[in-house]
Amino acid sequence: MKKIILSIVVMAALTGCTRNLTDLNKDPKNPPDASAEALFTNAERRLTNNLVSNSQNLNIFRLIIQHQQQTQYVDESNYDLANRSITDNTWDVMYRNVLHDLHASKKLVERDETNAGVKKNKLAFIDILQVYTFYYVVNTYGNVPYSEALDIELNFPKFDDAKTIYNDLLTRLDASIAALNTAATSFGNADVIYDGNVTKWKKFANSMKLKMALTIADDDAGKAKTAAEQAVAAGVFTSNADNALFRYITSPPNTNPIWVDLVQSGRDDFVACQTIIDELKNHNDPRIDNFFTKDPSGDYSGGLPGMGTSFSGTSHVDGAITAADFPGDILDYAEVEFLLAEAVERGFNVGGTAKEHYDKAVTASILFWNGTADEAADYLAQPEIDYASATPWREKIGLQKWLAFYNRPWDGWIDWRKFDYPALVAGPDANSDIPVRYSYPVNEQNVNTKNWEQASKAIGGDDVSTKLWWDKN
Question: Is 363 helix (H, G, I), strand (E, B) or coil?
Answer without folding.
Answer: helix
